[in-house]
Amino acid sequence: MKKQIRESLLQKRELHTKTEEDTNKIIEKLLSLPEIKKAKYILLYYPHRNEVNTLPLIKKFLKEGKNVLLPKVQGNNIIPIIFKDFSQLKEGYAGIKEPEGKPVSPEKIDIVIVPGVAFDRKGHRLGYGKGYYDRFLSKTDALKIGLAYDFQIVENLPAEEHDVPLDLIITPTQIIQTKEERK
Ligand code: ADP
Ligand code: MG
């Protein structure tokens, strides 16, 4: 079940042509959140394949003096690493760019920005199928925000015991408050 949805949505995402307009709309919505303004430690992701482009956000947060973190895969786990400069990046797990640097404890993080293949309105998320984010998100109380294009929001995703739901999902057209949808 998960496998079929993953393959179909991944294909849709690969075929999707990214536009700067969509990126800007998502970023604008994200920056309107009071939680973002207050946040000191933010874990983002370095965009891979056709994931929503986070580079403008990374640059903006760095300029504002926030602690920007990027994930590094170590064994089965994601380790948040302090990111200061693009020269820290090296190709790591699955060809994804990862920083070399100082790790930060997951409890310190205020906000985690999560990529995905598909999402539903209740906050369920489908990743590449390795469970890296589920394992990481279970270790933090950070506000969990998924970034997506509208076609990545599907009716109902199968959720398993280990799946950690997201608090918010932001698309170019909407901010989904998943708690409201779970009532
Ligand atoms: P994804 O979230 O990447 O779409 P899944 O939710 O299907 O992938 O998870 C993939 C696998 O990762 C699961 O079958 C499970 O064995 C493992 N996994 C996920 N979360 C945990 C966890 N907290 N502890 C141990 N294993 C986990
Ligand atoms: Mg999962």
Based on the model shown, name its key terms:
three-stranded mixed beta sheet, binds magnesium ion, 28% helix, single chain, globular, binds adenosine-5'-diphosphate, seven-stranded mixed beta sheet, 183 residues, Rossmann fold, alpha/beta, 12 strands
Describe this entry's structure for a reader.
By secondary structure, the chain is of the alpha/beta class. It has a single domain (2-182), classed as NagB/RpiA/CoA transferase-like (Rossmann fold, 3-Layer(aba) Sandwich), CATH 3.40.50.10420. Helices cover 28% and strands 25% of the residues. The protein contains six helices and twelve strands. A seven-stranded mixed sheet has the order 3-2-1-6-9-11-12. The chain is globular and about 40 Å long. 34% of the residues are buried. The model has no long low-confidence stretch (mean pLDDT 97).
